[in-house]
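Please, structure for the following, as C-alpha coordinates.
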Amino acid sequence: MGRIGLVIALIIIVIIIITVIVVVIYFATRDEDKTTKTVDTGTTSVVDTTDTTAGATTDTTAGATTPIVVTAVEEDELATDIPNYGIGPGTGCDDGSCMYGVVRAKGAACRAIGGAMNDGTPDDTWTDCHLDFGRAHMHGLHPWGECPGGSCQDLGVRMITSDCRALRGRVDGNPAETAETLCHFNVGAQPKYRFYGRGACPTGGACRVARINARNYSQCELIGGTPDSRSTGGWTMCSLDLGSA
Protein backbone atom coordinates (compact mmCIF):
# COMPACT_ATOMS: atom_id res chain seq x y z
CA MET A 1 0.00 0.00 0.00
CA GLY A 2 2.95 2.28 0.66
CA ARG A 3 4.21 1.90 -2.88
CA ILE A 4 0.77 2.50 -4.36
CA GLY A 5 0.38 5.72 -2.33
CA LEU A 6 3.75 6.94 -3.55
CA VAL A 7 2.79 6.36 -7.18
CA ILE A 8 -0.48 8.19 -6.71
CA ALA A 9 1.33 11.12 -5.10
CA LEU A 10 3.80 11.30 -8.00
CA ILE A 11 0.93 11.25 -10.52
CA ILE A 12 -0.81 14.12 -8.69
CA ILE A 13 2.44 16.14 -8.64
CA VAL A 14 2.91 15.61 -12.40
CA ILE A 15 -0.69 16.70 -13.08
CA ILE A 16 -0.17 19.85 -10.98
CA ILE A 17 3.08 20.70 -12.84
CA ILE A 18 1.42 20.20 -16.26
CA THR A 19 -1.51 22.40 -15.18
CA VAL A 20 0.82 25.18 -14.04
CA ILE A 21 2.74 25.02 -17.35
CA VAL A 22 -0.50 25.22 -19.38
CA VAL A 23 -1.72 28.22 -17.36
CA VAL A 24 1.62 30.03 -17.77
CA ILE A 25 1.65 29.43 -21.53
CA TYR A 26 -1.96 30.66 -21.83
CA PHE A 27 -1.35 33.98 -20.09
CA ALA A 28 1.99 34.47 -21.87
CA THR A 29 0.20 34.11 -25.22
CA ARG A 30 -2.43 36.69 -24.24
CA ASP A 31 0.21 39.23 -23.23
CA GLU A 32 2.06 38.70 -26.51
CA ASP A 33 -1.11 39.50 -28.47
CA LYS A 34 -1.34 42.81 -26.63
CA THR A 35 2.27 43.78 -27.40
CA THR A 36 2.62 46.78 -29.76
CA LYS A 37 3.51 45.77 -33.32
CA THR A 38 6.96 46.96 -34.45
CA VAL A 39 8.45 47.72 -37.83
CA ASP A 40 11.96 46.69 -38.76
CA THR A 41 13.64 49.63 -40.53
CA GLY A 42 16.86 47.75 -41.12
CA THR A 43 18.64 49.51 -38.25
CA THR A 44 16.50 49.60 -35.12
CA SER A 45 12.97 48.55 -34.35
CA VAL A 46 10.62 51.50 -34.01
CA VAL A 47 7.01 51.73 -32.93
CA ASP A 48 4.61 51.70 -35.88
CA THR A 49 2.41 54.75 -35.32
CA THR A 50 1.05 54.94 -38.84
CA ASP A 51 -1.96 57.25 -39.08
CA THR A 52 -4.34 55.65 -41.55
CA THR A 53 -6.53 58.76 -41.88
CA ALA A 54 -6.70 60.30 -45.34
CA GLY A 55 -3.85 62.63 -46.09
CA ALA A 56 -1.47 61.44 -43.34
CA THR A 57 1.99 59.96 -43.77
CA THR A 58 4.52 58.69 -41.23
CA ASP A 59 8.20 59.43 -40.83
CA THR A 60 9.85 55.95 -40.85
CA THR A 61 13.34 57.26 -40.15
CA ALA A 62 15.08 55.06 -37.57
CA GLY A 63 13.92 56.13 -34.13
CA ALA A 64 11.23 58.54 -35.36
CA THR A 65 7.71 58.10 -34.03
CA THR A 66 6.00 61.42 -34.82
CA PRO A 67 3.36 61.29 -37.61
CA ILE A 68 3.68 63.93 -40.38
CA VAL A 69 0.16 65.13 -41.20
CA VAL A 70 -0.32 66.50 -44.71
CA THR A 71 -2.99 69.19 -44.70
CA ALA A 72 -5.56 68.83 -47.47
CA VAL A 73 -5.17 71.56 -50.10
CA GLU A 74 -8.27 73.36 -51.23
CA GLU A 75 -9.08 73.08 -54.94
CA ASP A 76 -8.66 76.85 -55.38
CA GLU A 77 -5.11 76.64 -54.02
CA LEU A 78 -4.19 74.08 -56.68
CA ALA A 79 -5.48 76.18 -59.55
CA THR A 80 -2.82 77.73 -61.71
CA ASP A 81 -3.22 81.43 -62.53
CA ILE A 82 -2.53 81.29 -66.26
CA PRO A 83 -1.95 84.83 -67.59
CA ASN A 84 -4.56 85.86 -70.15
CA TYR A 85 -4.97 89.09 -72.01
CA GLY A 86 -7.89 91.25 -73.02
CA ILE A 87 -8.30 94.23 -75.34
CA GLY A 88 -8.24 97.87 -74.29
CA PRO A 89 -7.94 101.38 -75.75
CA GLY A 90 -4.73 101.92 -77.70
CA THR A 91 -2.14 103.78 -75.63
CA GLY A 92 1.11 102.40 -77.04
CA CYS A 93 1.97 100.35 -73.93
CA ASP A 94 5.00 102.51 -73.17
CA ASP A 95 4.74 101.55 -69.49
CA GLY A 96 5.77 97.96 -70.32
CA SER A 97 2.55 96.38 -69.08
CA CYS A 98 1.00 95.27 -72.36
CA MET A 99 1.39 94.78 -76.11
CA TYR A 100 0.37 97.45 -78.59
CA GLY A 101 -1.07 95.73 -81.64
CA VAL A 102 -3.03 96.27 -84.81
CA VAL A 103 -6.28 94.58 -85.82
CA ARG A 104 -8.74 95.37 -88.59
CA ALA A 105 -11.96 97.21 -87.82
CA LYS A 106 -14.29 99.77 -89.30
CA GLY A 107 -13.77 103.35 -88.20
CA ALA A 108 -16.88 103.44 -86.02
CA ALA A 109 -16.03 100.13 -84.31
CA CYS A 110 -12.43 101.17 -83.64
CA ARG A 111 -13.57 104.44 -82.07
CA ALA A 112 -16.18 102.65 -79.96
CA ILE A 113 -13.54 100.45 -78.30
CA GLY A 114 -11.03 103.26 -77.88
CA GLY A 115 -8.68 102.21 -80.66
CA ALA A 116 -6.17 104.57 -82.29
CA MET A 117 -6.16 105.04 -86.07
CA ASN A 118 -5.49 107.57 -88.77
CA ASP A 119 -7.48 110.73 -88.20
CA GLY A 120 -10.54 111.18 -90.37
CA THR A 121 -11.22 107.49 -91.13
CA PRO A 122 -14.92 107.25 -92.10
CA ASP A 123 -17.13 105.19 -89.81
CA ASP A 124 -17.87 102.55 -92.44
CA THR A 125 -14.31 102.17 -93.77
CA TRP A 126 -12.08 99.26 -92.76
CA THR A 127 -8.80 100.41 -91.26
CA ASP A 128 -5.90 99.42 -89.01
CA CYS A 129 -7.13 99.81 -85.44
CA HIS A 130 -4.42 100.10 -82.78
CA LEU A 131 -5.29 98.54 -79.41
CA ASP A 132 -3.60 97.44 -76.19
CA PHE A 133 -3.48 93.76 -75.27
CA GLY A 134 -2.97 93.29 -71.53
CA ARG A 135 -4.07 91.48 -68.37
CA ALA A 136 -5.87 94.52 -66.98
CA HIS A 137 -8.13 94.90 -70.01
CA MET A 138 -11.53 93.31 -69.62
CA HIS A 139 -12.78 93.28 -73.21
CA GLY A 140 -12.27 90.23 -75.39
CA LEU A 141 -13.82 88.35 -78.28
CA HIS A 142 -17.10 86.55 -78.87
CA PRO A 143 -18.03 84.23 -81.72
CA TRP A 144 -19.41 86.17 -84.64
CA GLY A 145 -23.07 87.12 -84.06
CA GLU A 146 -23.10 85.83 -80.46
CA CYS A 147 -22.42 89.07 -78.63
CA PRO A 148 -24.41 89.24 -75.36
CA GLY A 149 -26.77 92.19 -75.48
CA GLY A 150 -26.04 92.85 -79.15
CA SER A 151 -23.81 95.86 -78.42
CA CYS A 152 -20.47 94.45 -79.58
CA GLN A 153 -18.26 95.74 -82.37
CA ASP A 154 -16.76 93.85 -85.33
CA LEU A 155 -13.03 93.17 -85.21
CA GLY A 156 -10.76 91.11 -87.46
CA VAL A 157 -7.58 89.17 -86.60
CA ARG A 158 -5.40 86.98 -88.81
CA MET A 159 -6.04 83.23 -88.47
CA ILE A 160 -5.94 80.01 -90.47
CA THR A 161 -9.40 79.52 -91.97
CA SER A 162 -10.07 76.19 -90.21
CA ASP A 163 -9.04 77.70 -86.86
CA CYS A 164 -11.32 80.68 -87.42
CA ARG A 165 -14.28 78.41 -88.10
CA ALA A 166 -13.44 76.24 -85.06
CA LEU A 167 -13.93 79.32 -82.86
CA ARG A 168 -17.07 80.28 -84.80
CA GLY A 169 -15.51 83.35 -86.36
CA ARG A 170 -16.60 84.65 -89.79
CA VAL A 171 -14.43 84.70 -92.89
CA ASP A 172 -14.91 86.70 -96.07
CA GLY A 173 -15.51 84.68 -99.22
CA ASN A 174 -14.44 81.03 -99.35
CA PRO A 175 -10.71 80.82 -98.56
CA ALA A 176 -8.92 77.47 -98.41
CA GLU A 177 -9.04 75.75 -95.03
CA THR A 178 -5.26 76.02 -94.65
CA ALA A 179 -4.98 79.63 -95.84
CA GLU A 180 -4.43 82.55 -93.48
CA THR A 181 -7.31 84.99 -93.64
CA LEU A 182 -9.01 87.79 -91.74
CA CYS A 183 -11.26 86.22 -89.10
CA HIS A 184 -14.11 88.36 -87.80
CA PHE A 185 -15.28 88.27 -84.18
CA ASN A 186 -17.43 90.45 -81.98
CA VAL A 187 -15.52 92.35 -79.30
CA GLY A 188 -17.10 93.25 -75.96
CA ALA A 189 -17.23 92.73 -72.22
CA GLN A 190 -17.61 89.34 -70.51
CA PRO A 191 -15.85 87.71 -73.46
CA LYS A 192 -16.00 84.12 -74.59
CA TYR A 193 -12.36 84.28 -75.71
CA ARG A 194 -9.20 85.94 -74.41
CA PHE A 195 -5.61 85.81 -75.57
CA TYR A 196 -2.90 83.60 -74.04
CA GLY A 197 0.81 83.24 -74.66
CA ARG A 198 1.70 80.63 -77.28
CA GLY A 199 1.42 77.20 -75.72
CA ALA A 200 -0.12 78.56 -72.51
CA CYS A 201 -3.73 77.74 -73.35
CA PRO A 202 -5.48 76.26 -70.28
CA THR A 203 -6.76 72.70 -70.34
CA GLY A 204 -10.09 72.68 -72.12
CA GLY A 205 -9.51 76.15 -73.55
CA ALA A 206 -9.82 74.89 -77.16
CA CYS A 207 -7.34 77.54 -78.29
CA ARG A 208 -6.35 78.39 -81.83
CA VAL A 209 -3.53 80.60 -83.08
CA ALA A 210 -4.33 84.25 -83.77
CA ARG A 211 -1.83 86.66 -85.31
CA ILE A 212 -1.64 90.32 -84.32
CA ASN A 213 0.68 92.93 -85.82
CA ALA A 214 2.70 94.00 -82.75
CA ARG A 215 4.61 97.22 -82.21
CA ASN A 216 7.83 95.29 -81.60
CA TYR A 217 9.03 91.80 -80.73
CA SER A 218 9.70 92.64 -77.06
CA GLN A 219 6.06 93.63 -76.46
CA CYS A 220 4.97 90.44 -78.22
CA GLU A 221 7.21 88.33 -75.99
CA LEU A 222 6.08 90.28 -72.92
CA ILE A 223 2.67 88.62 -73.12
CA GLY A 224 4.05 85.24 -74.19
CA GLY A 225 3.64 85.66 -77.93
CA THR A 226 5.92 84.33 -80.66
CA PRO A 227 7.14 87.09 -83.00
CA ASP A 228 7.82 86.46 -86.68
CA SER A 229 10.85 88.72 -86.42
CA ARG A 230 13.11 89.89 -83.61
CA SER A 231 14.35 92.89 -85.54
CA THR A 232 14.98 95.77 -83.13
CA GLY A 233 12.37 98.49 -83.24
CA GLY A 234 10.27 97.07 -86.07
CA TRP A 235 6.65 95.98 -86.26
CA THR A 236 6.21 92.21 -86.41
CA MET A 237 3.42 89.68 -86.56
CA CYS A 238 2.87 88.15 -83.13
CA SER A 239 1.32 84.67 -82.73
CA LEU A 240 -0.87 84.17 -79.64
CA ASP A 241 -3.31 81.53 -78.44
CA LEU A 242 -6.96 82.55 -78.55
CA GLY A 243 -9.40 80.51 -76.51
CA SER A 244 -11.96 80.25 -73.75
CA ALA A 245 -11.74 82.96 -71.10
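Residues 85-244 form one domain. Confidence is low (pLDDT under 50) at residues 34-80.
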